[in-house]
């Protein structure tokens, strides 16, 4: 639709199933909003406040979420392939079964986030903070985790084949049943 909602105040709004394809929502306040099943493909959501928002099943393919606040947001089953989440805050967010293939998650904060069974194949997680994140059975095939901080993360059963973990901090990480075939662990801290 390409709607211009830049800096709009939409706290706790009910936007279930809304078509916001290509919309401009930069700087908008959507904290607590219900955007479940919404279509936000290629939307501009830079610096948007989506704290505690419901984005279950939302389509955010190719969306720009640079610097967005998604603290505690529910993105269960959301589609975020090719999305730009650089510098976004996803502390405590729920991303179970989310599709994050080819997403740019450079320097993203995923502290304590739930990513069980999420698809992060070929995602860029360079310098990401995944402290205490829950990544059981997640697909991280070919993901770039160079310099990522994963201290205390649960990666049990995760597929990290061909992942780049150079200089990553893997202290106290649970790697039980994880697949590390072909992963690059050069300089990684495994103590």
Explain this structure.
The protein is largely without helices or strands and 191 residues long. It has no helices and no strands. The N and C termini lie far apart (50 Å). The mean pLDDT is 98.
Largest sheet: none
Q: What's the β-strand tally?
A: 0
Helix content: under 10%
User: Helix count, per DSSP?
Assistant: 0
β-strand amount: under 5%
N- to C-terminal separation? 50 Å
- The dominant shape is elongated
Low-confidence stretches: none
Report the radius of gyration as a whole number of Å.
Answer: 16 Å
Please specify the SSE layout and strand pairing.
Blueprint: no helix or strand
Relevant terms:
191 residues; single chain; little secondary structure
Structure described in brief:
The protein is low in regular secondary structure and 191 residues long.
